[in-house]
Amino acid sequence: MFSFRANASKKQQIEGAGHMIRVIGIDPGLRNLGWGVIDVAGSRISHVANGVCNSEGDDLAQRLLSLHTQLTRIIQTYQPQAAAVEQTFVNKDGAGTLKLGQARGIAMLVPAQAGLVVGEYYPNTVKKTVVGVGHAEKGQVLHMVKMQLPGADIHGPDAADALAIAICHAHHGGASNLAAAVAKASA
User: Fold this and answer.
1) Do 107 and 28 contact (CB within 8 A), yes or no?
2) Which of 76, 39, 78 is nearest to 169 (CA)?
3) What sign for the dihedral angle of Cα 105, 22, 12, 121?
4) Which helix (H) or strand (E) holds 67?
5) Which pLDDT value is given to residue 1?
6) Rounded distance, CA 187 to CA 183, Å?
7) The dihedral formed by the CA atoms of 25, 81, 115 and 57, expressed in degrees to the nearest 10
8) Which residue among 15, 27, 58, 93 is the active-site one?
9) Is residue 115 left, alpha or beta, with left meaning phi > 0 and alpha meaning psi from -120 to 50?
10) Of 86, 120, 153, 161, catalytic
11) Which tens digits make up the pLDDT trace of 78-118?
12) Could you give the C-alpha distances from 127 to 77, 102, 161, in angstroms and in order?
């Protein structure tokens, strides 16, 4: 099953900063799929929740189904309005890359089933946005995510990467474009 951590207080609601958009970032992985939800209002962001979906099952199909079920529950619980997923990179292990691609398919399918447009970002773009360097290490990403989301209880490096993906989406216009559409529709 998935585990998650959310801020204990509700003070993370952003007030007076215009329209708020909820963004989910997803860090695909076959064993551990990280997820993080933030609220974005203009240039302000706040932590909502984060966690890791741990796949269950003896074969690939069961593990993928497990990730799909868990991520669907998270989308239903937090009702994001935008989603972002990390792009897959090709490494020396072709079989490993293929399995990661299948987990990434789940990471893109579930938000799409909920009617969300899914932004995609290369790992170096995410790291450069959050840390300032495209080849930052996981520890640096975790540190900078904690700096940008003070008080957030981050559930490990996969969840930190997912929050970084959500932050990247907020900074690269995906969330602000959605906010403009929401503002226009409610006018």
Assistant:
1) yes
2) 39
3) positive
4) helix 60-78
5) 43
6) 6
7) 40
8) 27
9) left
10) 86
11) 999 999 999 876 667 777 777 778 889 999 999 999 999 99
12) 28, 23, 9
Given the residues 15, 56, 58, 158, select the one marked as catalytic: 158
- Is residue 86 among the annotated active site residues? yes
The answer to whether residue 58 is catalytic is no
Query: Is 153 tagged catalytic?
Result: no
User: What percentage of residues in the chain have a pLDDT greater than 90?
Assistant: 63
Retrieve residue 89's tokens. Answer: 């990179």
Read off the amino acid at residue 121: Y
pTM strictly above 0.90: no
Which residues, including other chains, have CB under 8 Å from residue 42's CB and lie 6 or more apart?
17, 18, 176, 179
Q: CB–CB of 56/33 below 8 Å?
A: no
Both tokens assigned to 22: 């909820």
